[in-house]
Every structure is written in C-alpha cells, then in structure tokens.
Amino acid sequence: MTKPAATRRNLPTSPFKAPVAPPIKRFAVGDRVTHDEHGLGRVIGIEDEIAVLVDFGPFQKRITSPFAKMTTL
Q1: Domain count within the chain
Q2: Does the residue 11 lie in any domain?
Q3: What's the predicted TM-score (pTM) here?
Q4: Is residue 7 included in any domain, yes or no?
Q5: Entry's SUPFAM superfamilies (predicted)?
Q6: pLDDT tens track for 21-71
Q7: 19: in domain
C-alpha cells in the first residue's frame, strides 16, 4: 500500500509559482445549473458550503463540495 502524496511546500526563493487553489463555487437558491451526469436542474436548498440540493425534474439530488461537475447557467 502506498502513502498518499503530501502537499509540497513552496519556498519563497523558488523561481516557480505556488499552485493556486481554484475558487469555491457558490450557488444560490433558484439558480439554474447543469451537471455532467444528471443534466439541467434548479438549486432548491443549500447546506452552508458543504452541499446543495438540486431538483433535476424526476428526482432530487444532494451534490457535495467540490462541485467539479456542476456549473451555473
């Protein structure tokens, strides 16, 4: 079994830029969204910045953060 890769420390004297964390996606109730697997939907609930509840028509789905497969329309 291998160990997970540790995050590398960026030294201030390094000529390479530190990796930039992607911004956290924020959604509001009523936003129209598209999801790579589930299609088009509307946000109907928000749980802080942990998850959102989306109504995709025939079903509702709780999508957890990070929202890599979901974008706002």
Answers
A1: 1
A2: no
A3: 0.68
A4: no
A5: CarD-like
A6: 778 888 999 999 999 999 999 999 999 888 999 999 999 999 998 888 899
A7: no
DSSP 69: T
What digits encode the pLDDT tens for the residues 43-56? 999 998 889 999 99
CB 46 within 8 A of CB 53: yes
Residue 65 lies in a domain: yes
Amino acid (one-letter) located at 71 = T
> Which residues touch 69 (CB under 8 Å, ≥6 apart)?
35, 36, 37
CB 41, CB 27: distance < 8 Å: no
- The reply to whether omega before 66 is within 30° of 0 (cis) is yes
